[in-house]
Write a structure and sequence with these properties.
Helices cover about 75% and strands about 0% of the residues. It has helices at about 1-10, 15-35, 45-60, 70-95, 95-105, 110-130, 140, 150-170, 175-190, 195-210, 220-240, 245-255, 255-265, 275-280, 285-290, 290-295, 300-310, 320-330, 335-355, 370-375, 380-419.
């Protein structure tokens, strides 16, 4: 069992791992500083996942578990996706003046109840399918076919539920933003998540300050109260799931779980056995076309790795971290397909930001948190990036169709008036 043996090796060579973690952290901070002239930014989740995955590779290399060739493979893919993501994010911030002004024109009295209602619905689903089902894995019901109808809405409204209340707090509002934050945190805790709302709030705060160009302005007393409530909620979430401090530390190390399972393995491609090329590139499209390998839940990257590691389906598993996913699925010239998929994702997101989010009115500003959340998640979860790519295409088609209908209606009205 690679993960268990690696964790044992880590505890036996703790100083080697801490040195690897320090070096990886300096690289992560350095990349952020080169692009944005600051140590941390709205890409804080990307920074964190990069640091812990890179530390695992450096640790394995130092102990002789990971070959220099695999270290080079990891660094090439990791820097390709991370540098590309920072390039897109910096491009977003070039429009920050217009984006921040658009933020101020959003109808907050309509958006706030929408976000609270959405969080209440998600709370109800969590209570029914997780808490009401003897604590079943939330991943198990999230992989159900019916849940795919909720996923697009979640992709847009969950990040907005963290960013929008910060703007309202900055503008001097109190009840509405605190109601949104409270409903978001309660919904997140009920879902069985290990306090992931902390990343959501901290990342949104840093994104908001990146857009504004200065710090969030709220009274110190309120800032302290929010910090206390967040900390208490995080503790409640961890205690509810029987997560100790040792488990929490283990969870951070396991940012690199798929990295361990693939880069430390004698057969890194074992988990991709029987998966078609189309399903490797975009599982959703392969499903739509009736690909049998894409419709088999056991071939999901994380589930397949866990099946090999633990000998059976547990409905849990690591995310499809990009470098690990590429090593598992592609070799030789097949890496060109992997590189093309990364470039394709970044190109589509860049186009979407430049032509839809930044140039189509204030309402489209609501899509910005979704875009930044996607950029944060993609290096750690290839599947999430491809899912977001599908949603972007759907949004563009929907907006295009709306534009055509509006143009046709205006044209018909003009013709009728002329007659």
């Amino acid at each position: 069992m690679l993960v268990v043996s690696t964790l044992i090796a880590l505890s036996n060579h703790l100083w080697v791992y801490l040195a690897s973690l320090l070096l990886a952290g300096l690289i992560g901070v350095g990349v952020n500083y080169v692009f944005l002239r600051k140590c941390v930014s709205g890409l804080i989740f990307l920074q964190t996942s990069f640091v812990f995955n890179t530390a695992i590779i450096l640790f394995g290399w130092r102990l002789g578990t990971v070959s220099p060739l695999r270290v080079a493979h990891f660094l090439i893919y990791e820097f390709a996706v991370v540098l590309g993501t920072y390039w897109v994010y910096r491009n977003i911030l070039r429009h920050r003046t217009g984006l921040f002004q658009a933020f101020r024109t959003l109808p907050y009295r309509a958006i706030a109840p929408l976000l609270v209602s959405f969080n209440c619905v998600m709370l109800g689903l969590s209570l029914i399918f997780v808490a009401g089902n003897n604590g079943a894995s939330r991943i198990e019901f999230m992989t159900a076919s019916w849940f795919s109808y909720f996923r697009p809405i979640m992709s847009i409204l969950v990040p907005l539920s963290f960013l929008f209340p910060l703007y309202l707090l900055d503008c001097g509002h109190r009840f509405l933003p605190l109601s949104i934050l409270a409903s978001s945190v309660i919904s997140n805790v009920a879902s069985g998540s290990k306090a992931s709302f902390v990343f959501g709030i901290v990342g949104s705060l840093l994104l908001y300050q990146d857009l504004k160009g200065s710090r969030l302005v709220i009274p110190k007393t309120l800032r302290f109260a929010v910090l206390i409530v967040m900390s208490f909620s995080a503790v409640v979430a961890l205690v509810r799931l029987n997560v100790s401090m040792a488990d929490l530390a283990d969870r951070f190390v396991k940012f690199g779980e798929s990295t361990i399972m693939v880069y430390y393995s004698d057969d890194p491609s074992a988990a991709s056995s029987g998966v078609s090329t189309l399903a490797k590139v975009h599982r959703g499209v392969a499903k739509l076309l009736g690909d049998s390998s894409a419709n088999d839940i056991d071939t999901l990257f994380g589930f397949a790795l866990s099946g090999l590691e633990y000998g059976g389906q547990t409905f849990t598993g690591p995310n499809a971290q990009v470098s690990s996913y590429m090593l598992c699925n592609y070799s030789g010239w097949g890496n060109l397909i992997g590189i093309a998929s990364i470039i394709g994702y970044l190109a589509v997101v860049t186009w979407f930001v430049n032509h839809i989010v930044c140039k189509q009115g204030a309402a489209r500003m609501m899509l910005l948190p979704f875009v930044v959340a996607s950029l944060n998640a993609f290096p750690q979860d290839y599947y999430q990036g491809m899912s977001d790519l599908t949603l972007i295409v759907i949004l563009v088609l929907a907006l295009g169709w709306t534009g055509v209908v509006t143009f046709a209606c205006d044209g018909a009205g003009s013709a009728h008036g002329a007659a």
